[in-house]
Amino acid sequence: PLILLLSYVASCLGACRGLRCATRARACHGASRGRWLLLAAVATAGTGIWAMDFLALLGFSVSGETTRYNVLVAIASLLVAVLAAGVGLLIISVGPGEEGTPPVGSLIVFSLLLGAGLTVGHYLAMAAMRMPGRLSYDLLLVVFSFVIAVVAAAGVLLGAARLRGAGATLGASLGLGVLLCAMHYTAMAAVRMFPASSPTGLVVG
């Protein structure tokens, strides 16, 4: 329960800081806007998603076994998440729309892309695990985790485009924290573990 709480707090903090940076970006122009959007992407993806993932993974264990991680794959999962968030925030921030609301078509497309990026980042984090076992996944739950990621992505993009006050941002962050954690724990519920003679980690197929 403590690890679950810590992962939720990390997710909310990342979402809150990311949305506040996106709010600041809307008041800036040129290179300054780009820097604030980069900070928003790092906060949202780096803390709200990536740090939350690895905090939550502290709660995952196989009885009698030690779980280790491939550092390069773990870093790759961070870069994918930050890149997806950065591209989504950048495009939605410069797109047309009235009163800060992105066009519906753009919101759907970029929510799908950002959701895919967040999902890939999460499963790369899982692929970094090294243990004496093979991991595979329940396809239905994998798809469900992607759907949750898309909903969370839409919330991030809408919040980045519209939210202004600190109170509204905090409230949105609490909701986004629930969605981001739900994506993680749904993906973890999809895990199927099989014995193996050597440390393998993720097996595709």
In short:
The protein has 205 residues and is mostly helical. It has helices spanning 2-26, 31-57, 71-94, 104-127, 139-162, 166-189, and strands at 68-69, 129-130, 133-137, 191-195, 201-202. Strands 4-3-5 form a three-stranded mixed beta sheet. Strands 1-2 form a two-stranded antiparallel sheet.
How would you characterize this protein structure?
There is one protein chain. The radius of gyration is 17 Å and the shape is elongated. Helix 3 (71-94) crosses helix 5. It contains 6 helices and 5 strands; from the N terminus they run H-H-E-H-H-E-E-H-H-E-E. By secondary structure, the protein is mainly α. Strands 4-3-5 form a 3-stranded mixed β-sheet. The protein has a two-stranded antiparallel sheet with strand order 1-2. 72% of the residues lie in helices and 8% in strands. The mean pLDDT is 83.
Low-confidence sequence ranges: none
The termini sit apart by: 32 Å
- The whole-number mean of residue pLDDT values reads 83
The proportion of residues in beta strands is: 5-15%
Range of helix content: over 70%
* H-E string: HHEHHEEHHEE
Total helical elements: 6
**Total E-strand runs:** 5
Structural class: mainly alpha
Strand adjacency order, main sheet: 4-3-5
The general outline is: elongated
Q: How would a crystallographer describe the biggest sheet?
A: 3 strands, mixed
Rg (C-alpha, Å): 17 Å
Secondary-structure blueprint of this entry?
Blueprint: H1 2-26, H2 31-57, E1 68-69, H3 71-94, H4 104-127, E2 129-130, E3 133-137, H5 139-162, H6 166-189, E4 191-195, E5 201-202
Parallel strand pairs: 3-5
Antiparallel strand pairs: 1-2, 3-4
